[in-house]
Amino acid sequence: MASKTFFSKSFLSAYRSLRSNWPLLSLHRSSKDHHHHHLKTHLSNLSGKALVVDVEGGLLRSSSTFPYFMLVALEAGSILRGLLLLLLYPLLCCLTQEFAIKIMALVTFAGIKEEKFRAGRAVLPKFFLEAAGVVLEVLSEANIKMCISRMPTVMVEGFLKEYLEVEIVVARELKVFAGYYTGLMEEEADQYRDGVVLMENMASLHGSILGFGSKSSPHPLLSQCKEVQLVSEAEKRKWHGVLRPNGAAFHNPLVFHDGRMAFLPTPAATLAMFLWLPFALALLLLRCLLFLCLPYSISVPLGAVTGVTNRLLRATPSPRQDGFGGRLYVCNHRTLLDPIYVSGALNRPVVAVTYSVSPVSEALSPIRTARLARDKEEDRRRMEQLLGRGDDLVVCPEGTTCREPYLLRFSPLFAELAEEVVPVALSAGVTMFYGTTASGFKCFDPFYFLANPWPRYEVEFLPAVATGTMVREGRSSCEVANLVQGQIGAALGFQCTALTRKDKYLMLAGNEGVVEQKKKKNLQRSWTSCLMK
């Protein structure tokens, strides 16, 4: 009995720590904080000056680098690599900062292929931006910016240059052998020597250099600055987050990011995640059985008992009675489960129109799927055939998912198919794992989503749009698609963009997001099977 009580208290303590470290909960506002305004005033007069910022000591609100190495270990490595890093944490606390970083780099990077490493650009920027402090608000005012870091260059350079427009990044280089990282970094003395040369050039071109870092562990390069502003860890904890949904606090807005982790994996939060995994597996199996084996009228209430939150914000439209075929539902794309939730909200079957869904996802789907060929005329024929049969179709014209409050460009084909379409605004929320990926195994997306303690979905049916009438009045299908995109964006409070699937995959995965098509014979067989169901 005592052991059970101890386990319960330990798990509760770790869970509370996890909640306290979730990014969405940590971005509290404290605009009246004295230290925040004093520091911002001191740094505001940067016009014509060169600024040198210590990433861990001055830019981020916490000097701990463990969460970022853990992110790389889990996302670019494996769960076993992350577990090893967590088990080493007590030892890391006993080592010097320099030696601890070397151990973390070795565990995190050893054996990872250099050309396939994209976590520095695809995963870490989101967490760096959420952890950034007051310096981020004034960074753009400096004439030239230089950031120094004890972390490897591949972890910080993409974030600093692409989102903050930092001209010079001085960080630790990782050694590579036969195309694979060895996990060994260059010595701090080498970094110091290179940094001194760069700072001397900066001083000759821009005069005085202002340095900004931490009192507890100031970076050696800050000694080369004419003026240095140091803050304590206590002062940094009082900073508020400066991440803005529209990207106002930094050069490029954060539209795309990848990875499975939805929280910053501090030691306590990571421990809570590993403790949760056995329960997550059992809960995942239970939720899958509920949604696969039971009708929506039963599975939805039972799913709510297991922690799945569903909200229907507007009454569902009734089936068409005018003899013009099925309805066409157009929704934004949050996860692979979008059509299933639309079907559940309607409480009737629909057909999900897909482009590149894995065979595993198709086999496990509780609703019918219709695979398209990425050929406009052929896709039009197939969807018109389904609508003519009276099937209700769900289409996601974005073509890919987006996690942030943005809508990608809507493909205009849907505007040419039916007399009217029903826009559907979807919102999904997770607390531990993202149910989408650009570089991982997509067949696991629904399982990751359902493994969250409290996954959330909101479905809102908007008034029908008479697309057929608009096209006959002279509006182009692109204009109609933009209109529908705008209505969904307004309902969700999302910003509409012209970004596409290709833009997302080029940034996150280094490819155009085109999955190799099956043989035409197999594709035709899959389509024929769908029509015969």
From TrEMBL:
It is a multi-pass membrane protein. Residues 327-429 form the Phospholipid/glycerol acyltransferase domain. The keyword Transmembrane applies. The chain crosses the membrane at residues 268-292. It comes from the Eukaryota. InterPro entries: HAD_RAM2/GPAT1-8, Plipid/glycerol_acylTrfase. GO terms for cellular component: membrane. GO terms for biological process: cutin biosynthetic process. Its main location: membrane. GO terms for molecular function: glycerol-3-phosphate 2-O-acyltransferase activity; phosphatase activity. It is found in: Membrane. Keywords: Membrane, Transferase, Transmembrane, Transmembrane helix. Belongs to the GPAT/DAPAT family. This is Phospholipid/glycerol acyltransferase domain-containing protein. It comes from Zingiber officinale.
